[in-house]
Amino acid sequence: MRFFKYEGLGNDFVVVDLREGPITPSPIDPEIAARLCDRHRGVGADGVLGVLPPASPGADARMIVINADGSEAEMCGNGIRCVAKALHDGALPGGAIQKATLAIDTGAGRLDCRVLAGADGLCESVAVDMGRPRMERAELPMQGPAGGVLDEAIELAGPREARRFSITGVSMGNPHAVIFVGDGEDPRGLAEQFGPALERHPSFPRRTNAEFARVRGGRIELVVWERGCGITLACGTGACATAVAATLTGRAPRGREITVELPGGPLGITVAQDLSSVTMRGPARLVFSGELDLCAPAIAS
C-alpha cells in the first residue's frame, strides 16, 4: 500500500488514498492503523487519514480520521489541511485537483479549504472554514442539564493529587473541554497531569479532547491532550475550540484573527462576530512517501 507522511505544525499523519478500493463501513482497520502509528515498529504518526470518494454532491473528497490508538475521530483540523495539500498538489495517485477552494467531507460535515499556494504553485498553507462551533451540552456531548458549559467546575484526579478546574465546552464536530490557567501555571505540566482524567471523565460519554490554555499579550498559549493520542505538537480543532472559549469568556475578541501558539507553532484562528463560523489558517507539509507491506509481521501480527 502506498502511503504519504504529512505534518501540520508537527501533528503528523499517515495519509492513504482509498478512492480506488472497495468502500466498506470501516475502510481502515483500527488495529493496523494503530500499528502504522507506532513510532518504533511502524511509520510513526499521531493518526491515519483515509482519503475516500466524496459523500456529498460537489465535494472533492471525503476524509476519515483514525487516531493512534485505533479509535475514529469525527474531525482533525491539522489533518484536513494535510489532505487538502495532498489533493491540490497531486501527490496522491488520483492526480492534482488544483482548485482555489477544495470541499472535503468529514465526520463533522463538509468543510471548505482555501489553498494558499507559493511561487511554485504548490500549497503552502490552508485556510479552513471549520463551520459553526457548538456550545450546547448535548452537542458536545456532555452529561448534565440542558444549556451551555461555561466556566463550569469539574474535579480531576491527577497522579499526585485531585484538583478543581473550570471548563468551557465547545464542539468543532468533535468534543473539547477548555481550561484557562493563570500566568504562573504551566499548561504543559497540567496537561500531562490532568489531561488523561479529563479525556475519560464520566461526564463525557465519547471522551473529550482536553485543552490547557494561557492568555498572554493578546495571544493564546495552548497545550492539548488529544483524545486517543495524548499530547501532540498541535491540534487544529483544539485551537479553534480554545479561541471560541476565549471569546465566550471575554479573554479574546471576535471578528479578527487570534494567534494560538501550540508547541509545534502558531495557528491563526478567526471567530465570527455572530459565532456562525470559525476559520483556521495554518501550514501543511509533505515529509516523505513510501510503500507498506501490510503482511509484514510488525504490521499484521
How would you describe the overall organization of this protein?
The chain is an alpha+beta fold. The chain contains 5 helices and 18 strands. It has 2 domains: 2-131 and 284-300, Diaminopimelate Epimerase, Chain A, domain 1 (Roll); 137-276, Diaminopimelate Epimerase, Chain A, domain 1 (Roll). Strand 10 and strand 11 (175-180) form a beta hairpin. The longest helix has 13 residues, at 77-89. The chain is globular and about 50 Å long. The model has no long low-confidence stretch (mean pLDDT 94).
Distance between the termini: 17 Å
> Major beta sheet, specifics?
18 strands, mixed
Element string (H = helix, E = strand): EEHEEEHEEEEEEHEEEHEEEEH
Q: Which fold name corresponds to the CATH topology of the largest domain?
A: Diaminopimelate Epimerase, Chain A, domain 1
Radius of gyration: 19 Å
Can you tell me the CATH class of the largest domain? Alpha Beta
Classified in CATH, the superfamily of the largest domain is Diaminopimelate Epimerase, Chain A, domain 1
Low-confidence stretches: none
Overall structural class, as computed from helix and strand content, comes to: alpha+beta
